[in-house]
Sequence to fold (407 residues):
Amino acid sequence: MADFHQNGLVTTLHNLANRPLEALEAELVQFSEKRPMALILPSLFSELEGPALAKIVDHLVKVPYLNEIVIGLDRANESQYRHALDFFGRLPQHHRILWNDGPRLRAIDDELQQLGLAPKEMGKGRNVWYCMGYILASNKSESVALHDCDITTYDRELLARLIYPVANPQFNYEFCKGFYARVANGKINGRVSRLLVTPLIRALQRTIGDSEYLQFMDSFRYPLAGEFSFRRDVLNDIRIPSDWGLEIGVLSEMHRNYSSNRLCQADIAETYDHKHQDLSLNNDQGGLSKMSIDITKAMFRKLATQGNTFNLETFRSVKATYFRIALDFIETYHNDAVMNGLTLDIHSEEKAVEMFASNIMKAGQSFLDNPMETPFIPSWNRVVSAMPDVLDRIVTAVEADTKEYLG
Fold:
């Protein structure tokens, strides 16, 4: 059970009483009359073949308050799309699948590419962006939650606690970030958040100076959580990265667009586990290695927009400071694990920190080599300005796919 401590600039909504799920869902059903709710599920087809997503759907069929579910499907051919229609067909809520590799949505994407307005690379960011566009186009929901499809410990209480802050008409939150203890199978997980993001923020505070933005980022219990919720109007202006910097980029956009009292974080699960990425010690184009570079670049870019100047000497100082702070954190996490009867491999933790330290320099060099890089996908306001009928065309394409291939 959590304590009630409020840390940093963002409101923390704790799980203080283990309130029964039935009570939460009963309130959400009432809230849905004023604020209809939607869920976005960004999915790879391969996730339909694993046990996690099937279990998630088992839980979602029992959720009484959702108005619609929007599934973004990546890396699927025609037969796989047909399978997905059948796979999600038992959902009682109104639901649609965006077949992102299908010819209809590809044609729209090609037109946006010609205008320089489409996502530049495949991945979760692109998937989420098109799902957000569909939510805007469908105009069925006011409060929207998003969570990953590889959560092996899923329970529908996670969704209830995630969407509650933006669904309750008496609350004024525009955005809620989920957090949870990354503990499973007797181990402490969440290496990138524990060993990169938090130590890097502290290192930046020491080297380039503290700022309101760094304090904001340091307020989040688990900044890399893939679970968040938001009010529909957030979708118009948000710019999200198409790379692994998605979660950090979303938080940065919330900081840019909203005051802190319109944002919160909520404790949404007692335990949480999902598919783990490889550390990729020898390949900085994949796994946690690429993720760490993208995340670090995202933070450097944000700080540069606030007037901070970076050079190689700055990055060397950040790296050295980070390395010392991260190593100290390893001892902290080890002691925490021991006291709770958990295991933590100090050797593998230090290997990860060494790789992250090296990747801070790679991210810095990449930033210096290409300071005008813009990995952010344009906001939907900008896209609609350039192609006024784009949202209607997305809905038309999705409906045509559904009609042609269903059954």
